[in-house]
Amino acid sequence: MLLWRRLAALRGERAPRRLRAGGPGPGSGSGSGRTSDDSGAPRPLYMDVQATTPLDPRVLDSMLPYLTAYYGNPHSRTHAYGWESEAAMENARRQVADLIGADSREIIFTSGATESNNMAIKGVARFYKSRKKHIITTQTEHKCVLDSCRSLETEGFRVTYLPVKKNGLIDLKELEAAFQLDTSLVSVMTVNNEIGVKQPIRDIGEICRARNVFFHTDAAQAIGKIPMDVNNMKIDLMSISGHKIYGPKGVGALYVRRRPRVRLEPLQSGGGQERGLRSGTVPTPLAVGLGAACEVAQQEMEYDHKRILQLAERLVTKIMSEVPDVVMNGDREHRYPGCINLSFAYVEGESLLMALKDVALSSGSACTSASLEPSYVLRAIGTDEDLAHSSIRFGIGRFTTEEEVDYTVQKCIQHVKRLREMSPLWEMVQDGIDLKSIKWTQH
After folding, report:
1. Are residues 344 and 273 in the same domain?
2. Can you give the pTM of this predicted structure?
Protein backbone atom coordinates (compact mmCIF):
# COMPACT_ATOMS: atom_id res chain seq x y z
CA MET A 1 0.00 0.00 0.00
CA LEU A 2 3.04 2.32 0.23
CA LEU A 3 2.76 3.52 -3.36
CA TRP A 4 -0.91 4.42 -2.96
CA ARG A 5 -0.21 6.29 0.29
CA ARG A 6 2.58 8.29 -1.35
CA LEU A 7 0.35 9.24 -4.28
CA ALA A 8 -2.44 10.21 -1.90
CA ALA A 9 -0.05 12.36 0.13
CA LEU A 10 1.09 14.16 -3.03
CA ARG A 11 -2.53 14.94 -3.90
CA GLY A 12 -3.31 16.01 -0.33
CA GLU A 13 -5.83 13.18 0.04
CA ARG A 14 -6.31 10.62 2.73
CA ALA A 15 -5.28 7.13 1.61
CA PRO A 16 -7.99 4.48 1.75
CA ARG A 17 -7.94 2.31 4.84
CA ARG A 18 -6.55 -1.13 4.26
CA LEU A 19 -8.69 -4.10 5.18
CA ARG A 20 -7.63 -5.78 8.35
CA ALA A 21 -6.29 -9.33 8.14
CA GLY A 22 -9.67 -10.89 8.82
CA GLY A 23 -11.34 -8.83 6.13
CA PRO A 24 -14.33 -6.48 6.40
CA GLY A 25 -16.13 -7.07 9.65
CA PRO A 26 -18.38 -5.48 12.24
CA GLY A 27 -18.36 -1.74 12.71
CA SER A 28 -16.28 -0.70 15.69
CA GLY A 29 -18.15 -1.30 18.90
CA SER A 30 -21.49 -1.92 17.18
CA GLY A 31 -21.61 -5.67 17.69
CA SER A 32 -23.97 -5.85 14.72
CA GLY A 33 -21.62 -7.09 12.05
CA ARG A 34 -22.27 -3.95 9.97
CA THR A 35 -19.58 -1.68 8.56
CA SER A 36 -19.54 2.11 8.31
CA ASP A 37 -18.14 4.40 5.66
CA ASP A 38 -15.97 7.44 6.42
CA SER A 39 -19.05 9.59 7.08
CA GLY A 40 -20.25 7.20 9.76
CA ALA A 41 -23.30 6.07 7.76
CA PRO A 42 -23.89 2.32 8.19
CA ARG A 43 -23.45 0.09 5.17
CA PRO A 44 -25.07 -3.32 4.73
CA LEU A 45 -22.84 -6.23 5.62
CA TYR A 46 -21.92 -8.24 2.55
CA MET A 47 -23.31 -11.76 2.03
CA ASP A 48 -23.45 -11.97 -1.77
CA VAL A 49 -20.06 -13.31 -2.83
CA GLN A 50 -21.53 -15.28 -5.75
CA ALA A 51 -22.27 -11.93 -7.41
CA THR A 52 -18.79 -10.58 -6.74
CA THR A 53 -16.05 -10.70 -4.12
CA PRO A 54 -14.13 -7.87 -2.46
CA LEU A 55 -10.65 -7.29 -3.81
CA ASP A 56 -8.09 -9.03 -1.62
CA PRO A 57 -5.57 -6.41 -0.35
CA ARG A 58 -2.69 -8.64 -1.48
CA VAL A 59 -4.11 -8.57 -5.02
CA LEU A 60 -4.40 -4.79 -4.92
CA ASP A 61 -0.76 -4.49 -3.79
CA SER A 62 0.37 -6.58 -6.76
CA MET A 63 -1.60 -4.42 -9.21
CA LEU A 64 -0.64 -0.93 -8.04
CA PRO A 65 2.81 -0.71 -9.67
CA TYR A 66 1.28 -1.60 -13.06
CA LEU A 67 -1.35 1.13 -12.69
CA THR A 68 1.29 3.81 -12.15
CA ALA A 69 4.99 3.20 -12.80
CA TYR A 70 5.01 0.17 -15.13
CA TYR A 71 2.48 1.28 -17.73
CA GLY A 72 4.04 -0.12 -20.91
CA ASN A 73 2.03 -1.98 -23.53
CA PRO A 74 2.87 -5.67 -23.02
CA HIS A 75 2.88 -6.15 -26.81
CA SER A 76 5.54 -3.47 -27.41
CA ARG A 77 8.68 -5.43 -28.27
CA THR A 78 11.24 -2.64 -28.83
CA HIS A 79 11.80 -1.16 -25.36
CA ALA A 80 11.97 -1.90 -21.65
CA TYR A 81 8.47 -0.53 -20.92
CA GLY A 82 6.93 -3.26 -23.06
CA TRP A 83 9.31 -5.97 -21.87
CA GLU A 84 8.57 -5.44 -18.16
CA SER A 85 4.79 -5.42 -18.77
CA GLU A 86 5.07 -8.55 -20.91
CA ALA A 87 7.06 -10.29 -18.17
CA ALA A 88 4.39 -9.42 -15.61
CA MET A 89 1.63 -10.62 -17.95
CA GLU A 90 3.39 -13.95 -18.58
CA ASN A 91 3.97 -14.44 -14.86
CA ALA A 92 0.24 -13.91 -14.29
CA ARG A 93 -0.51 -16.43 -17.05
CA ARG A 94 1.66 -18.97 -15.21
CA GLN A 95 -0.12 -18.27 -11.90
CA VAL A 96 -3.51 -18.92 -13.49
CA ALA A 97 -2.24 -22.10 -15.15
CA ASP A 98 -0.72 -23.41 -11.91
CA LEU A 99 -4.07 -23.17 -10.14
CA ILE A 100 -5.73 -25.55 -12.61
CA GLY A 101 -2.80 -27.81 -13.54
CA ALA A 102 -2.42 -26.36 -17.03
CA ASP A 103 0.42 -25.14 -19.24
CA SER A 104 0.72 -21.34 -19.27
CA ARG A 105 0.49 -21.39 -23.08
CA GLU A 106 -3.06 -22.71 -22.69
CA ILE A 107 -4.32 -19.60 -20.85
CA ILE A 108 -6.03 -16.85 -22.89
CA PHE A 109 -6.83 -13.60 -21.07
CA THR A 110 -10.36 -12.27 -21.56
CA SER A 111 -12.62 -9.66 -19.99
CA GLY A 112 -14.35 -12.24 -17.80
CA ALA A 113 -16.26 -15.51 -17.75
CA THR A 114 -19.06 -14.24 -19.99
CA GLU A 115 -16.61 -13.56 -22.81
CA SER A 116 -14.80 -16.85 -22.10
CA ASN A 117 -18.06 -18.80 -22.30
CA ASN A 118 -18.99 -17.10 -25.57
CA MET A 119 -15.53 -17.76 -27.02
CA ALA A 120 -15.56 -21.43 -26.05
CA ILE A 121 -19.06 -22.33 -27.16
CA LYS A 122 -19.35 -20.24 -30.32
CA GLY A 123 -15.69 -20.69 -31.20
CA VAL A 124 -15.71 -24.50 -31.15
CA ALA A 125 -19.13 -24.77 -32.80
CA ARG A 126 -18.23 -22.50 -35.70
CA PHE A 127 -14.78 -23.96 -36.29
CA TYR A 128 -16.11 -27.53 -36.63
CA LYS A 129 -19.46 -26.64 -38.22
CA SER A 130 -18.66 -28.31 -41.54
CA ARG A 131 -18.67 -31.72 -39.84
CA LYS A 132 -20.38 -31.23 -36.47
CA LYS A 133 -23.55 -29.28 -35.76
CA HIS A 134 -24.69 -30.55 -32.34
CA ILE A 135 -24.00 -29.23 -28.81
CA ILE A 136 -25.02 -30.51 -25.38
CA THR A 137 -25.53 -28.33 -22.30
CA THR A 138 -27.85 -28.24 -19.28
CA GLN A 139 -30.94 -26.26 -18.38
CA THR A 140 -29.25 -24.74 -15.30
CA GLU A 141 -26.25 -23.12 -16.97
CA HIS A 142 -25.41 -19.44 -16.60
CA LYS A 143 -27.50 -17.20 -18.83
CA CYS A 144 -24.53 -16.35 -21.08
CA VAL A 145 -24.07 -20.05 -21.88
CA LEU A 146 -27.76 -20.57 -22.62
CA ASP A 147 -27.91 -17.42 -24.75
CA SER A 148 -24.78 -18.47 -26.66
CA CYS A 149 -26.44 -21.78 -27.45
CA ARG A 150 -29.67 -20.09 -28.53
CA SER A 151 -27.65 -17.80 -30.78
CA LEU A 152 -26.05 -20.84 -32.42
CA GLU A 153 -29.48 -22.39 -32.96
CA THR A 154 -30.33 -19.43 -35.20
CA GLU A 155 -27.26 -20.37 -37.27
CA GLY A 156 -28.50 -23.91 -37.85
CA PHE A 157 -26.88 -25.73 -34.92
CA ARG A 158 -28.85 -28.19 -32.80
CA VAL A 159 -28.63 -27.96 -29.01
CA THR A 160 -29.70 -30.50 -26.42
CA TYR A 161 -30.57 -28.87 -23.08
CA LEU A 162 -30.25 -31.66 -20.53
CA PRO A 163 -32.67 -31.57 -17.59
CA VAL A 164 -31.34 -31.94 -14.06
CA LYS A 165 -32.62 -34.07 -11.22
CA LYS A 166 -34.42 -32.58 -8.23
CA ASN A 167 -31.08 -32.23 -6.45
CA GLY A 168 -29.69 -30.17 -9.34
CA LEU A 169 -27.29 -32.83 -10.66
CA ILE A 170 -27.40 -34.15 -14.20
CA ASP A 171 -28.09 -37.81 -14.92
CA LEU A 172 -24.96 -39.24 -16.55
CA LYS A 173 -27.05 -41.84 -18.41
CA GLU A 174 -29.11 -39.05 -19.97
CA LEU A 175 -25.87 -37.33 -20.96
CA GLU A 176 -24.59 -40.49 -22.65
CA ALA A 177 -27.91 -40.93 -24.47
CA ALA A 178 -27.78 -37.34 -25.75
CA PHE A 179 -24.59 -37.77 -27.83
CA GLN A 180 -25.02 -37.77 -31.60
CA LEU A 181 -22.58 -38.57 -34.38
CA ASP A 182 -21.98 -34.87 -35.00
CA THR A 183 -21.72 -33.65 -31.38
CA SER A 184 -18.81 -31.21 -31.13
CA LEU A 185 -19.06 -29.87 -27.58
CA VAL A 186 -20.49 -30.53 -24.12
CA SER A 187 -20.74 -27.54 -21.77
CA VAL A 188 -21.56 -28.14 -18.08
CA MET A 189 -21.01 -25.67 -15.23
CA THR A 190 -18.80 -26.92 -12.38
CA VAL A 191 -20.52 -25.14 -9.46
CA ASN A 192 -23.94 -23.59 -10.01
CA ASN A 193 -24.05 -19.88 -9.24
CA GLU A 194 -27.54 -19.97 -7.71
CA ILE A 195 -27.76 -23.19 -5.71
CA GLY A 196 -24.10 -24.17 -5.29
CA VAL A 197 -24.51 -27.68 -6.70
CA LYS A 198 -21.25 -29.29 -7.86
CA GLN A 199 -21.57 -31.43 -10.99
CA PRO A 200 -19.55 -34.67 -11.47
CA ILE A 201 -17.02 -32.96 -13.72
CA ARG A 202 -14.44 -35.76 -13.82
CA ASP A 203 -17.09 -38.32 -14.88
CA ILE A 204 -18.39 -35.96 -17.57
CA GLY A 205 -14.86 -35.39 -18.83
CA GLU A 206 -14.24 -39.14 -19.10
CA ILE A 207 -17.47 -39.65 -21.03
CA CYS A 208 -16.61 -36.85 -23.48
CA ARG A 209 -13.01 -37.98 -23.99
CA ALA A 210 -14.15 -41.53 -24.78
CA ARG A 211 -16.31 -40.11 -27.59
CA ASN A 212 -13.77 -37.57 -28.90
CA VAL A 213 -16.09 -34.71 -27.98
CA PHE A 214 -14.69 -31.51 -26.48
CA PHE A 215 -15.71 -30.71 -22.90
CA HIS A 216 -16.12 -27.10 -21.68
CA THR A 217 -16.94 -26.07 -18.13
CA ASP A 218 -17.88 -22.69 -16.74
CA ALA A 219 -15.76 -22.76 -13.57
CA ALA A 220 -16.27 -19.14 -12.50
CA GLN A 221 -17.81 -20.21 -9.18
CA ALA A 222 -15.38 -23.09 -8.61
CA ILE A 223 -11.88 -21.83 -9.39
CA GLY A 224 -9.89 -21.11 -6.25
CA LYS A 225 -12.60 -22.62 -4.05
CA ILE A 226 -12.35 -26.33 -4.85
CA PRO A 227 -9.40 -28.23 -6.37
CA MET A 228 -9.51 -28.25 -10.17
CA ASP A 229 -7.10 -30.11 -12.47
CA VAL A 230 -7.85 -29.91 -16.18
CA ASN A 231 -5.87 -33.07 -16.96
CA ASN A 232 -7.34 -35.31 -14.26
CA MET A 233 -10.82 -34.05 -15.09
CA LYS A 234 -10.35 -34.30 -18.88
CA ILE A 235 -11.44 -30.68 -19.36
CA ASP A 236 -10.71 -29.18 -22.78
CA LEU A 237 -11.95 -25.62 -22.20
CA MET A 238 -12.53 -23.78 -18.91
CA SER A 239 -13.93 -20.31 -18.20
CA ILE A 240 -12.48 -18.26 -15.33
CA SER A 241 -13.54 -14.93 -13.79
CA GLY A 242 -11.31 -12.59 -11.78
CA HIS A 243 -13.91 -10.92 -9.59
CA LYS A 244 -15.28 -14.22 -8.27
CA ILE A 245 -11.94 -15.06 -6.61
CA TYR A 246 -11.13 -11.76 -4.86
CA GLY A 247 -9.51 -10.33 -7.98
CA PRO A 248 -10.42 -7.29 -10.10
CA LYS A 249 -13.50 -6.93 -12.28
CA GLY A 250 -13.08 -6.79 -16.03
CA VAL A 251 -10.64 -9.67 -16.40
CA GLY A 252 -10.93 -13.43 -16.79
CA ALA A 253 -9.37 -16.26 -18.71
CA LEU A 254 -10.19 -19.14 -21.00
CA TYR A 255 -8.22 -22.35 -20.74
CA VAL A 256 -7.84 -23.94 -24.20
CA ARG A 257 -6.20 -27.38 -24.34
CA ARG A 258 -3.22 -27.79 -26.66
CA ARG A 259 -3.04 -31.62 -26.71
CA PRO A 260 -5.37 -32.94 -27.99
CA ARG A 261 -5.62 -29.56 -29.65
CA VAL A 262 -8.83 -27.58 -29.46
CA ARG A 263 -9.41 -25.10 -32.28
CA LEU A 264 -11.64 -22.06 -32.04
CA GLU A 265 -12.95 -19.52 -34.49
CA PRO A 266 -12.12 -16.11 -32.91
CA LEU A 267 -15.00 -13.82 -32.01
CA GLN A 268 -13.06 -10.65 -32.80
CA SER A 269 -10.33 -9.68 -35.22
CA GLY A 270 -7.33 -7.45 -34.63
CA GLY A 271 -3.63 -7.59 -33.89
CA GLY A 272 -3.53 -11.31 -33.24
CA GLN A 273 -2.79 -11.18 -29.52
CA GLU A 274 -3.48 -14.21 -27.29
CA ARG A 275 -2.61 -16.79 -29.95
CA GLY A 276 -4.92 -14.98 -32.36
CA LEU A 277 -7.94 -16.09 -30.32
CA ARG A 278 -8.57 -12.80 -28.53
CA SER A 279 -7.11 -9.79 -30.28
CA GLY A 280 -6.67 -6.60 -28.30
CA THR A 281 -4.16 -5.21 -25.82
CA VAL A 282 -4.08 -7.30 -22.65
CA PRO A 283 -4.69 -4.97 -19.63
CA THR A 284 -1.54 -5.68 -17.65
CA PRO A 285 -2.79 -4.46 -14.23
CA LEU A 286 -5.92 -6.61 -14.48
CA ALA A 287 -3.99 -9.66 -15.68
CA VAL A 288 -1.52 -9.22 -12.81
CA GLY A 289 -4.47 -8.99 -10.41
CA LEU A 290 -6.02 -12.18 -11.78
CA GLY A 291 -2.70 -13.99 -11.45
CA ALA A 292 -2.19 -12.80 -7.88
CA ALA A 293 -5.76 -13.81 -6.96
CA CYS A 294 -5.12 -17.30 -8.33
CA GLU A 295 -1.86 -17.61 -6.39
CA VAL A 296 -3.48 -16.50 -3.12
CA ALA A 297 -6.40 -18.88 -3.74
CA GLN A 298 -4.02 -21.78 -4.30
CA GLN A 299 -2.24 -21.03 -1.03
CA GLU A 300 -5.38 -20.59 1.06
CA MET A 301 -7.92 -22.89 -0.61
CA GLU A 302 -7.85 -25.59 2.05
CA TYR A 303 -8.09 -23.13 4.94
CA ASP A 304 -10.80 -21.05 3.23
CA HIS A 305 -12.89 -24.12 2.43
CA LYS A 306 -12.75 -25.46 5.98
CA ARG A 307 -13.67 -22.10 7.48
CA ILE A 308 -16.46 -21.39 4.98
CA LEU A 309 -17.90 -24.87 5.58
CA GLN A 310 -18.08 -24.18 9.33
CA LEU A 311 -19.77 -20.81 8.80
CA ALA A 312 -22.24 -22.28 6.29
CA GLU A 313 -23.22 -25.07 8.68
CA ARG A 314 -23.66 -22.49 11.43
CA LEU A 315 -25.99 -20.41 9.28
CA VAL A 316 -28.12 -23.29 8.01
CA THR A 317 -28.38 -25.05 11.37
CA LYS A 318 -29.42 -21.90 13.24
CA ILE A 319 -32.03 -20.86 10.68
CA MET A 320 -33.57 -24.31 10.30
CA SER A 321 -33.67 -24.92 14.06
CA GLU A 322 -35.64 -21.70 14.61
CA VAL A 323 -37.80 -21.46 11.49
CA PRO A 324 -40.05 -24.28 10.19
CA ASP A 325 -40.81 -24.91 6.52
CA VAL A 326 -37.42 -23.89 5.17
CA VAL A 327 -36.09 -25.81 2.16
CA MET A 328 -32.45 -25.95 1.05
CA ASN A 329 -32.35 -25.96 -2.75
CA GLY A 330 -29.87 -28.32 -4.38
CA ASP A 331 -28.03 -31.41 -3.24
CA ARG A 332 -26.95 -31.32 0.42
CA GLU A 333 -23.66 -33.20 -0.20
CA HIS A 334 -22.46 -32.47 -3.74
CA ARG A 335 -22.17 -28.72 -3.34
CA TYR A 336 -19.85 -25.83 -2.62
CA PRO A 337 -20.75 -24.81 0.96
CA GLY A 338 -20.34 -21.05 0.47
CA CYS A 339 -23.41 -20.85 -1.78
CA ILE A 340 -26.60 -21.48 0.21
CA ASN A 341 -30.02 -21.14 -1.40
CA LEU A 342 -32.96 -21.38 1.01
CA SER A 343 -36.68 -21.12 0.29
CA PHE A 344 -38.86 -19.75 3.11
CA ALA A 345 -42.38 -21.04 2.53
CA TYR A 346 -45.22 -18.50 2.82
CA VAL A 347 -42.82 -15.55 2.56
CA GLU A 348 -42.27 -13.47 -0.57
CA GLY A 349 -38.53 -13.43 -1.30
CA GLU A 350 -38.50 -9.80 -2.46
CA SER A 351 -40.31 -8.72 0.71
CA LEU A 352 -37.73 -10.55 2.80
CA LEU A 353 -34.88 -8.93 0.88
CA MET A 354 -36.41 -5.49 1.50
CA ALA A 355 -36.77 -6.27 5.19
CA LEU A 356 -33.14 -7.42 5.32
CA LYS A 357 -31.94 -4.10 3.89
CA ASP A 358 -28.94 -4.03 6.24
CA VAL A 359 -27.62 -7.28 4.74
CA ALA A 360 -26.55 -7.46 1.09
CA LEU A 361 -28.20 -10.64 -0.20
CA SER A 362 -29.70 -11.86 -3.46
CA SER A 363 -32.70 -13.81 -4.65
CA GLY A 364 -30.62 -15.48 -7.39
CA SER A 365 -28.14 -14.68 -10.13
CA ALA A 366 -27.03 -11.04 -10.28
CA CYS A 367 -27.26 -11.30 -14.08
CA THR A 368 -31.00 -12.04 -14.03
CA SER A 369 -32.18 -10.52 -10.74
CA ALA A 370 -33.99 -7.68 -12.54
CA SER A 371 -36.55 -10.22 -13.75
CA LEU A 372 -39.69 -10.82 -11.66
CA GLU A 373 -39.96 -14.34 -13.02
CA PRO A 374 -38.99 -17.16 -10.64
CA SER A 375 -35.46 -18.45 -11.11
CA TYR A 376 -35.12 -20.77 -14.12
CA VAL A 377 -32.61 -22.80 -12.10
CA LEU A 378 -35.16 -23.43 -9.35
CA ARG A 379 -37.82 -24.24 -11.93
CA ALA A 380 -35.44 -26.75 -13.53
CA ILE A 381 -35.05 -28.66 -10.25
CA GLY A 382 -38.84 -28.85 -9.88
CA THR A 383 -39.33 -26.20 -7.19
CA ASP A 384 -42.94 -25.04 -6.90
CA GLU A 385 -43.42 -21.50 -8.16
CA ASP A 386 -44.41 -20.15 -4.73
CA LEU A 387 -41.29 -21.64 -3.15
CA ALA A 388 -39.14 -20.38 -6.02
CA HIS A 389 -40.42 -16.87 -5.32
CA SER A 390 -39.45 -17.25 -1.65
CA SER A 391 -35.80 -18.17 -2.18
CA ILE A 392 -32.80 -16.24 -0.85
CA ARG A 393 -29.15 -16.88 -1.74
CA PHE A 394 -26.61 -16.48 1.06
CA GLY A 395 -22.97 -16.11 0.00
CA ILE A 396 -20.16 -16.80 2.47
CA GLY A 397 -16.60 -16.00 1.49
CA ARG A 398 -13.02 -15.49 2.62
CA PHE A 399 -13.72 -12.32 4.59
CA THR A 400 -17.09 -13.28 6.10
CA THR A 401 -16.98 -13.28 9.89
CA GLU A 402 -18.81 -15.38 12.45
CA GLU A 403 -20.44 -12.19 13.78
CA GLU A 404 -21.79 -11.38 10.32
CA VAL A 405 -23.28 -14.85 9.98
CA ASP A 406 -24.94 -14.61 13.40
CA TYR A 407 -26.30 -11.14 12.63
CA THR A 408 -27.72 -12.34 9.31
CA VAL A 409 -29.31 -15.37 10.98
CA GLN A 410 -30.84 -13.24 13.74
CA LYS A 411 -32.35 -10.74 11.30
CA CYS A 412 -33.52 -13.47 8.92
CA ILE A 413 -35.36 -15.36 11.68
CA GLN A 414 -36.88 -12.13 12.99
CA HIS A 415 -38.24 -10.96 9.65
CA VAL A 416 -39.42 -14.37 8.41
CA LYS A 417 -41.52 -14.74 11.56
CA ARG A 418 -42.86 -11.20 11.20
CA LEU A 419 -43.77 -11.59 7.53
CA ARG A 420 -45.45 -14.92 8.18
CA GLU A 421 -47.58 -13.38 10.91
CA MET A 422 -48.85 -10.96 8.26
CA SER A 423 -49.56 -13.74 5.74
CA PRO A 424 -53.09 -15.19 5.46
CA LEU A 425 -51.56 -18.29 3.87
CA TRP A 426 -49.44 -18.93 6.96
CA GLU A 427 -52.54 -18.49 9.14
CA MET A 428 -54.40 -21.08 7.06
CA VAL A 429 -51.50 -23.52 7.32
CA GLN A 430 -51.45 -23.06 11.11
CA ASP A 431 -55.15 -23.95 11.12
CA GLY A 432 -54.32 -27.22 9.36
CA ILE A 433 -55.62 -26.28 5.91
CA ASP A 434 -53.89 -27.94 2.95
CA LEU A 435 -53.30 -25.06 0.54
CA LYS A 436 -52.94 -27.41 -2.43
CA SER A 437 -56.49 -28.67 -1.88
CA ILE A 438 -57.98 -25.19 -2.29
CA LYS A 439 -59.52 -24.25 -5.62
CA TRP A 440 -58.69 -20.57 -6.00
CA THR A 441 -61.16 -18.52 -8.04
CA GLN A 442 -59.97 -16.17 -10.77
CA HIS A 443 -61.26 -12.58 -10.78
Report:
1. no
2. 0.89
